[in-house]
Amino acid sequence: MPPTTTTKKSTKKLADIDGELCGVCQACATVCPVNAIEVTESYLIVIPEKCTGCGVCVTVCPVGAITLIER
Ligand code: SF4
Ligand code: SF4
Fold first, then answer.
1. What is the pTM of this model?
2. pLDDT, averaged across the chain
3. 3 state SS of 41
4. Residue 71: exposed, middle, or buried by beta-carbon count in 10 A (0-12, 13-18, 19+)?
5. Domains of the chain, start order
6. Whether 47 contacts 37, CB under 8 Å
7. For 38, which of 16, 45, 50, 68 could close a Cys bridge (C-beta 3.0–4.6 Å)?
8. How many percent of the chain have pLDDT more than 90?
9. Are 36 and 17 in contact (CB under 8 A)?
10. Atom of ligand 1 nearest to the CA of 58
């Protein structure tokens, strides 16, 4: 969602998962300190309201499917 419409202030970064690369190993969801990554049956969802842009998930992904993007 656009930054101008969010009510809560957060960091400017947001984890973005490439669904084509992601093998749903769930490593990122496990390490996320704020549980911002939700796992469904076949893909993952980053919850923007929770994600702090810390980048931990990026470092653990074995296939490089996660990047930090500008909000
Ligand atoms: S950047 Fe940090 S807070 Fe956001 S999803 Fe990844 S581990 Fe969680
Ligand atoms: S660590 Fe990478 S491959 Fe594993 S679930 Fe997360 S995004 Fe997908």
1. 0.85
2. 90
3. coil
4. middle
5. 3-70 (3.30.70.20)
6. yes
7. 45
8. 82
9. no
10. 6
